[in-house]
Amino acid sequence: MPNLALRSQRVVTPEGVRAATILIENGRIAALLPHNADVADATLVDVGNRAILPGVIDPHVHINEPGRTNWEGFDTATRAALAGGLTTLVDMPLNSAPVTTSVANLEIKRAATIGQLHTNVGFWGGVVPGNADEIEPLIAAGVLGFKAFLTHSGIDDFPNATEDDLRRVMPILARHKLPLLVHCELSVEDDAWKQNDHRSYPNYLSSRPKEWEDEAVAMMIRLCEEFRCPVHIVHLSSANSIAPIAAAKARGLPLTVETGQHYLYFNAEDIADGQTQFKCAPPIREKANNDQLWAALQAGIIDFVATDHSPAPPDLKQARKRRFYHGLGRHCLAAAGPTRALDSCPPARRHAPGPGPLAQRKSSSTHRPEP
Ligand SMILES: [Zn+2]
């Protein structure tokens, strides 16, 4: 394979953005050279001012195929990801049908990917009540870790786990050093908000208070400490949980945390009534809360941003009736880029997990697009 040299005024490196020439030998990066380096032995491609950056890993994507392919399938999901600079997606165990809670179901999902992948794709397994016996076989079959909900997942075929369910599987995951990803909301049945205006965003926000998240995060820190099982908190929204997370990390617990761009970019104060496209769970909170999320990201307490990309047809988002009560809203439709500079943290950490507890398995567990 002839050597290749890629030159740009804007090469994103772990140390920051700079002009450089990347020398590639045998398909691998061999050296990061000065911009004007002599690379006569290689085929030089100068992309000018266009940025060259590592392919982004998104570990939180719901592709929905098979079963809900009309929401989105592997072909369009991975094609769109590639257009946005993402080269590896890790697919959540829902909202496909069947959900990825057994090896048989994983094989059905894998079969659905054939001929459709434009990026690398890995799979998370699911923890639901009664599938503890499937955990070891799913690990052997190559899943990268497991996802559990602590509140209703939004689809009835993926029921939420109880603490007892987690206690059964966490020793297994600890032994394999694989992460348990948790949707952290411990919900309390309270229908009061449903009596109020279904179009009101403040009413919806009040229906999923920070305390739900904070109590769930506290429980997961406690279980993480007890079992020493890697725990990953997905889409953190409540800034109240930042301090206990920081303290847990300071104690050396194998705990990682992501937030979503929608919690950083949007604020509750700006969401008008009826704008159900902003409905997600946990909800987008107030600016003062979100400023603290930004600070935690910059400080490395929040490890990275993941999209929680999870499309749904407009009718399920109540696009016409604009009522938060009925609209699907486990995840956010919106895709927005962070707008604040994060110069103080390495680019590789802003958008994707480094080789931490969330990304330890060998690449052989990831499916690659056919040439
Ligand atoms: Zn999700």
Automatic annotation (TrEMBL):
Start and end residues of each Amidohydrolase-related domain: 52-310
SUPFAM superfamilies assigned to the protein according to its UniProt record, in alphabetical order: Composite domain of metallo-dependent hydrolases (SSF51338), Metallo-dependent hydrolases (SSF51556)
Pfam families given in the database record: Amidohydro_1 (PF01979)
Organism: Hymenobacter humi
UniProt-listed PROSITE patterns: DIHYDROOROTASE_1
Gene name of this polypeptide: allB
Name of protein: allantoinase
Keyword Hydrolase: yes
NCBIfam families: allantoinase
Similarity field: Belongs to the metallo-dependent hydrolases superfamily. DHOase family. Class I DHOase subfamily. Belongs to the metallo-dependent hydrolases superfamily. Allantoinase family.
Pathway(s): Nitrogen metabolism; (S)-allantoin degradation; allantoate from (S)-allantoin: step 1/1
